[in-house]
Amino acid sequence: MTSPYTHLFQPLDLGFTQIKNRILMGSMHTGLEEEKNGFEKLAAFYAERAKGGVGLIVTGGISPNFRGRISPFGSELSRPWQVAKHRKITTAVHQHDGKICMQILHTGRYAYHPFSVAPSKLKAPITPFTPKAMTERQIQTTIKHFARAAKLAQKAGYDGVEVMGSEGYLINQFICPRTNQRNDKWGGEFDNRARFPVEIIKAIRAAVGPEFIIIYRLSMLDLVPDGNQFDEVVELGKRVEQAGVNIINSGIGWHEARVPTIVTSVPRAAFSWITARVRKHLSVPVVAVNRINTPEIAEQILANDEADMVSMARPLLADPHFVNKAAANQAQHINTCIACNQACLDHVFENKRASCLVNPQACYETELVFKPVLQPKKLAVVGAGPAGLEFACRAAERGHEVHLFDGSDDIGGQFNYAKQIPGKEEFYETLRYFKQRLQTAGVNVHLGQRQTADSLQQQGFTEVVLATGVVPREVAINGSDSPKVLGYLDVLRDHKPVGKRVALIGAGGIGFDVAEYLTTATSPSLDIKEWSAIWGVDNSYQQRGALAAPKAETSEREVYLLQRKTSKVGAGLGKTSGWVHRATLNKKGVKMLAGVTYQKVTDEGLWIEQDGQSQLLEVDHIVICAGQVPQRELQQQLEQAGMQVHLIGGADVAAELDAKRAIRQGAELAAKI
Questions:
Q1: φ/ψ of residue 281, rounded to 5
Q2: Are residues 397 and 426 in contact, defined by beta-carbon separation less than 8 angstroms?
Q3: 84, 169, 580, 601: which sits with the fewest CB atoms below 10 Å from its CB?
Q4: Through-space distance between the first and last CA atoms of the chain, rounded to whole angstroms
Q5: Closest C-alpha to 209, from 153, 262, 252, 165
Q6: Yes or no: is domain 378-471+629-672 CATH 3.40.50.720?
């Protein structure tokens, strides 16, 4: 069947070379760059995406010198002997008719080590180290180092390089008044601030010759105070174009920006408008980025002349064969990125290897391997939540006869509650994907059927995978039998009425989700203009950095979010998304209290103690969001009946709702059973 995505699959002609489609795999650090034998694993990782049909791949950031490294042992390309390991990547990609560029990234003041340098001696809020201000000699040397890295990349077989000029890294630090307080020819007026990136591009082009792709990542929206103005962005784009750039990629927001740019609550294609606006002033192809996770969205951007290419990073973690599936008009089979950040960016910022919540094989292509089975088994899987779904599909794809049972009338388990949270609508996509995959894999699905040890034994099962998930933990509070007290399932599953004044007991992920659910009338993630207004993104670009005063938000409900721990409320949330959830609830006036002891529930509300003082929270309802316990009543019965039992997901560990661990456990068990 012909693909409906006609713009997406047009080749892009750069003159000396052609890119087979309009999809660029955006740069993303994986952590494999620093692991022992990591480049062999990286080669397999990128090769799988090339095999999946992506037109052009950009690697994670590689520093041109020691001071520019992300961390003390961060990856660097500055010596001829380092070329060989990079050639493993390029060879693997070229074997699948792919093209790949290496990103050259100097972190500047974002470096997580004490040897950092920057235009000025200004500490970044996201690292503990204060950089040294670069001397003019160091600036000139760094320009040469960029050119040297590009030349070595060319020798390693890369088709080009991407120069990282956005996201608040070194080049971006030179361009913006916020971080450039120099008074020499590298600072002050725009001509001086723009000199550094222009000289870098000129040096690279001189080193690599005319037939080598140079991409420049242009910061189109800094989203920080004292960022660039729109006319400065355009002028810099023109200058790097004249200096020899072939493609300009969009950069959106600094890492220290207080505006979310990629989390799941950001609307799809929320920033394509700025790419379209800048593109009108340029002559080289321009790439749109951020929250483009379906072929329909990508096609729409191209069809509307907003960009010449679209960049996807996390969507190609989630599904390496995204492009081929779209080309074959099988978009319904794409494992869609839900922008959760839990296994990708959160891992990278914690110095762990990146992967993907919905695709645990990402970055584990050589280790998590699914071989056809020699002796198929008849397996029962009880529970159709994320863990059970992943196991059932993987095991069936290997050749086992798999029967999936669930007492509910639908698959999904806890995902069916998560998808209702405003800003988490992407979870619908995961359930759509699994419904398709169950059919394709040939899993026998039995819904609305509760199983016992006897019923499973009568059906001839000797091996059972328990993926029965969790049940809410009960909290012993005097008066907890009051009709004022509800569980989170009463709210999210049964949709029981909730009053205007609410106390939530438990401030983990569930507590935050319920707070969001109760304080949001309509989801801003479904409307780009509304979302931009809430977060203070100036779509008219009248202000430096495109920042405006955020729109005030109100909630019809008065909500208290309570926890026993004395630590900061929400401290256990994701590293790259937790601040967004806290900021969202703060905007709506949610009162977050830590170090709380729950005394009693009365007709007036909830009595608590904090800092030795008793107080009454006059609320209509108290919602218990205080964690879960494993649901594994069947285990003992099954084992007594002589069956082999495997526990995965919440049935194994229920400390927090953890879909990342649940899906990985399901995959790992399926690989070896």
A1: -100, 0
A2: no
A3: 84
A4: 36
A5: 153
A6: yes
User: By CB neighbour count within 10 A (0-12 exposed, 13-18 middle, 19+ buried), where does 569 fall?
Assistant: buried
**Maximal C-alpha separation, the chain:** 83
Among left, alpha and beta (phi > 0; psi -120 to 50; other), residue 443 is: beta
Please report which confidence band the pLDDT of residue 525 belongs to, taking 50, 70 and 90 as the band edges.
low
Question: In this structure, are residues 199 and 216 in contact, taking their beta carbons and an 8 Å threshold?
Answer: no
Distance from C-alpha of 505 to C-alpha of 453, rounded to nearest angstrom: 36
CATH architecture of 475-520+555-626: 3-Layer(bba) Sandwich (3.50)
Question: In angstroms, what CA-CA distances link 248 with 17, 59, 282?
Answer: 16, 16, 9
Q: Summarize pLDDT for 58-87 with one digit per residue, the tens.
A: 999 999 999 999 999 999 999 999 999 999
Inter-residue contact 8 to 302 (CB < 8 Å): yes
| CATH no. of 12-291+300-308 | 3.20.20.70
pLDDT class for 657, splitting at 50, 70, 90? Answer: low
Mean pLDDT of 359-371: 97
pTM score of the predicted model = 0.95
Positions annotated as catalytic residues are 169
User: What single-letter amino acid sits at 599?
Assistant: Q
Residue 641: DSSP 8-state? T
